[in-house]
Amino acid sequence: MPHNQFDKKSQAWSALFSEPMSDLVKRYTSSVDFDKRLWQADIAGSLAHAEMLAAQGILSDSDHAAIQDGMRAIRSEIEAGAFQWKLDLEDVHLNIEARLTQLVGDAGKRLHTGRSRNDQVATDVRLWLRDEIDLIVALLGDLQKALLDVAEKNVEVILPGFTHLQVAQPISFGHHMLAYVEMFSRDAERMLEVRRRTNRLPLGAAALAGTGYPLDRERVAKTLGMIDEQGRPQVCQNSLDAVSDRDFAIEFSAAAALCMVHVSRLSEELVLWMSQNFGFIRISDRFTTGSSIMPQKKNPDVPELARGKTGRVVGHLMGLLTLMKGQPLAYNKDNQEDKEPLFDTVDTLKDTLRIFSEMVGGQLNATTGEKEGGISVNAQAMEQAAARGYATATDLADYLVKKGLPFRDAHETVAHAVKAAISHQVDLSELPLAVLQQFNASIGKDVYDVLSLRGSLNARDILGGTAPNQVRTQIARQRARLA
Ligand code: ARG
């Protein structure tokens, strides 16, 4: 039988197989349609492996040079869209290796010395994900900056803060935006943690047990930038674990799901704030759509979709956890199923973060150098809503505490005052002094200072509180951190 081992799938492994695969099984087992996007990592991993094989004297310099040339050609072919991906060759690894062998002959066949697709694919996914994490961290930085821009413009804008979606206390809109900056900064921290554990080298584990060739794994790790902060090479220390676990992908998905959960909370608020019943904000028309039947409508499609896409990212996390559950050591083909959920998680998260940066902060107008089209705020509507909900009731209680009342009694007293205000359909600050004094004789004229929204805001001048003073300090701290 003629033998280019890659010509027919039925002969790709050995002469052991007497039957060709059916087309259905080929389609079922092949992953090239989706894993071809790992091609850059696959080539980088192969070049690092070949360089080390040559340095160790396992591969001749001329074979090494041929492999380098071949990979250069393959890279150009893929970039030009001229590379022929073949389903018959199952996955990205076999496709590239087969083409290499076609281009450079025996040198191509020597590349796989001391290596298995099991440690190869684990390496590729880690390399790919590491670089995606770097992009995601940068996108998280952009979104935080966009939120900071909105915060800075709206430090003095007052809206009702809610608990149970009931008006609770007045807060600064800047403060509200900063809450999301905190969430996304923790998301970025989590991503960087995951990056540390992702950036470790499986190559050298071979199929599962390690290899008899004298490979220099640390050299390969260094070549691939799999190093820690001190520049020390990071190498998976157990061959069985190296080829089989996908915990790095799972914890990345967990971090991504959490980030999307934060996005979905922001989305929900944008949707609420945009509704006529709130009327707090507007977002640019390009993030909304109209209705085909109701001409007055502008629907917040982008925040709604982001809220919806959170479901699919959370679903991918569940998928990956379930994929890993109960797999015996070491590599199992199950793991080929890690890619689509992982890829979709990365794509969804990146697109969402990009679109949110623009929707929140606007986009740069090249001519004016100004950002345009971000969230615009209706300060009056926010303030009116805060004034409607007895948001300064706590301030009145605190005022009475200062006059010597125990807090629980002050709380009860204010409840009576609020009841009276509700029955007269006025705000607490609109009750005449004589009426307020009926609830407690120690109330003086100065009570109106604390009953104002601004007075309430300024009073919360504590680390992490909503006083404009504190909000400005936090904006400066976050800006310095992101600089
Ligand atoms: N396409 C496979 C995957 O994604 C590569 C590893 C296959 N290894 C094997 N022994 N069949 O996991």
Structure description:
The chain has 483 residues and is mostly helical. The chain folds into 3 domains: 8-113, Fumarase C, Chain B, domain 1 (Orthogonal Bundle), CATH 1.10.275.10; 118-155 and 165-372, Fumarase/aspartase (Central domain) (Fumarase C, Chain A, domain 2, Up-down Bundle), CATH 1.20.200.10; 380-482, Ribonucleotide Reductase Protein R1, domain 1 (Orthogonal Bundle), CATH 1.10.40. The chain is 60% helix and 4% strand. It has 20 helices and 6 strands. The strands form 3 sheets. It has a two-stranded antiparallel sheet with strand order 1-2. Strands 3-6 form a two-stranded antiparallel ribbon. Strands 4-5 form a two-stranded antiparallel ribbon. Strand 4 and strand 5 (371-372) form a beta hairpin. The model has no long low-confidence stretch (mean pLDDT 95). Bound molecules: arginine.
Number of helices: 20
Strand content: under 5%
Q: What's the CATH topology name of the largest domain?
A: Fumarase C, Chain A, domain 2
Gross CATH architecture of the largest domain = Up-down Bundle
Low-confidence stretches: none
| SSE order, one letter for each helix or strand | HHHHHHHEEHHHHEHHEEEHHHHHHH
The portion of residues assigned to helices is 55-70%
Overall shape: elongated
Which CATH C-level class of the largest domain is it? Mainly Alpha
Query: How is the biggest beta sheet arranged?
Result: 2 strands, antiparallel
Radius of gyration of CA atoms, rounded to a whole number: 31 Å
**Overall number of domains:** 3
| Alpha-beta content class | mainly alpha
